[in-house]
Write a structure and sequence with these properties.
Elements: H1 19-34, H2 47-68, H3 70-80, H4 84-89, H5 96-117
Helix pairs in contact: 1-5, 2-5
Length: 119
């Protein structure tokens, strides 16, 4: 995930909502769905650097979970609601964990924006 703007929707919903508030909601949803705690991090004005750090730390967390237990990893995939077919396509990818992390963040973003939109 290169920057905040790469997390976008076809409509301009994110332009009408404070990006920092969206990011806070994403972090809360991420913890709820994966157990990854990033809530103690202070969100700076430079959101792109923060997202790079979030991506890196989440990727390390996913690596750790995958080494601990395949069952835990599959439960995480289920809770995040990643399509099994999409997940299976990346298994042979040389950047597997990078791509997997992108998938998790993208799905969490979708879930968060949907919740905000329908509030």
């Amino acid at each position: 995930m290169e920057n905040f703007d790469s997390l976008s929707l076809s409509n301009n919903l994110t332009n009408n909502i404070d990006k920092q508030k969206i990011l806070e909601a994403i972090i809360i949803q991420l913890e709820k769905d994966t157990g990854f705690d990033f809530t103690k991090e202070i969100i700076p004005d430079n959101l792109n650097l923060f997202i790079e750090k979030l991506h890196f730390e989440l990727m390390n967390y996913l690596i750790k979970v995958s080494k601990q237990s395949q069952t835990k990893l599959m439960n995480l995939i289920y809770r995040v609601d990643i399509n099994q077919r999409s997940f299976n396509k990346i298994k042979n990818n040389e950047k597997y964990f990078h791509t997997f992390t992108d998938m998790v963040l993208s799905r969490i973003f979708q879930k968060t924006i949907t919740k905000i939109y329908y509030k």
